[in-house]
């Protein structure tokens, strides 16, 4: 299959250190159903990961909870030894006893175990970006982040991010150590975290919307469809292009098991919406 190269112009400097292509890849869909268990087709999953990197993706998102552990091991098997500029971001802070349960665990002992296991699974001596998957309501965030700070001090982690957090929680965690990324649910049809996106933009923190291609209301899909026709693009590509236009600190991690859909997603990086189209899409 012909490789689709993403635009090198759409980059973001993560943590003041890593120049990230803003169209990345989220590996969660390469886990089993419910992000639990092994990939249904492991050989295809390896091809998808290798194709993404060949196409210019240098930011891949995973988590200890996907599998659990198996998604990280898949990435290690597919891509190690890693290209020099490839950033593998992972997350920790969930217990996964089965496919239905996602149990936040912010205890220092569990966080330390997650970090150490991720290092082994990914076959690395340090993690470029480690993110707290969820804040545990039963553990003060400062206590959780103290364990993360210890891993940073030990050289196990370079940069730290958070997921599904409020501005207040970002500020709480930032008292312990710098936060360079926030990964919250956000897309054209669901803008609950608008305030958080604006805050991260102001602070120079990366904003990584998970579920960037969520189904939109029928009326919104019709609006996107009309604009997509102007760009000879798909609805999904326009939804991704809107996110890139929304703020320069947005990093995309759409996931797919399909090589064709992967290339389609990457091409969204070359679509530059006009201000008029952006405003029309943004109206709710």
Automatic annotation (TrEMBL):
Q: What is the lineage of its organism?
A: Bacteria, Pseudomonadati, Bacteroidota, Chitinophagia, Chitinophagales
Q: Which Pfam families match?
A: Aldo_ket_red
The answer, when asked if Oxidoreductase is one of the entry's keywords, is yes
Keyword set for this entry? Oxidoreductase
Listed transmembrane segments:
none
Supply the CDD domains for this chain: AKR_AKR13B1 (cd19088)
Q: Which superkingdom heads the taxonomic lineage of this protein's source? A: Bacteria
- Which residue intervals define the domain NADP-dependent oxidoreductase in the entry? 23-281
| Name of the protein | Aldo/keto reductase
């Amino acid at each position: 299959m012909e490789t689709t190269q993403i635009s090198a112009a759409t980059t973001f400097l993560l943590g003041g250190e890593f120049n990230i292509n803003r169209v990345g890849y989220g590996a969660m869909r390469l886990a089993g159903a419910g992000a639990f268990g092994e990939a249904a087709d492991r050989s295809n999953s390896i091809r998808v990961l290798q194709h993404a990197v060949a196409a210019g993706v240098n930011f891949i998102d995973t988590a200890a909870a996907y599998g659990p552990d198996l998604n990280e091991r898949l990435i290690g098997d597919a891509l190690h030894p890693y290209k020099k500029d490839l950033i593998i971001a992972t997350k920790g802070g969930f217990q996964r006893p089965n496919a239905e349960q996602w149990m936040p665990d912010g205890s220092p002992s569990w966080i330390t175990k997650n970090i150490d296991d991720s290092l082994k699974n990914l076959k690395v001596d340090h993690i470029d970006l480690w993110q707290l998957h969820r804040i545990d309501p039963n553990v003060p965030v400062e206590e959780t982040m103290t364990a993360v700070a210890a891993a940073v001090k030990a050289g196990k982690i370079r940069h730290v991010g958070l997921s599904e957090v409020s501005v207040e929680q970002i500020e709480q965690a930032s008292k312990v150590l710098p936060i360079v990324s926030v990964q919250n649910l956000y897309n054209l049809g669901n803008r609950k975290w608008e305030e958080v996106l604006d805050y991260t933009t102001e602070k120079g923190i990366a904003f990584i919307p998970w579920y960037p291609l969520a189904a939109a209301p029928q009326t919104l899909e019709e609006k996107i469809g009309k604009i997509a026709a102007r760009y000879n693009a798909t609805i999904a590509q326009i939804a991704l292009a809107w996110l890139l236009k929304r703020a320069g600190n947005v990093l995309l991690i759409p996931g797919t098991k399909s090589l064709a859909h992967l290339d389609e997603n990457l091409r969204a990086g070359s679509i530059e919406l006009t201000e008029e189209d952006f405003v029309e899409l943004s109206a709710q």
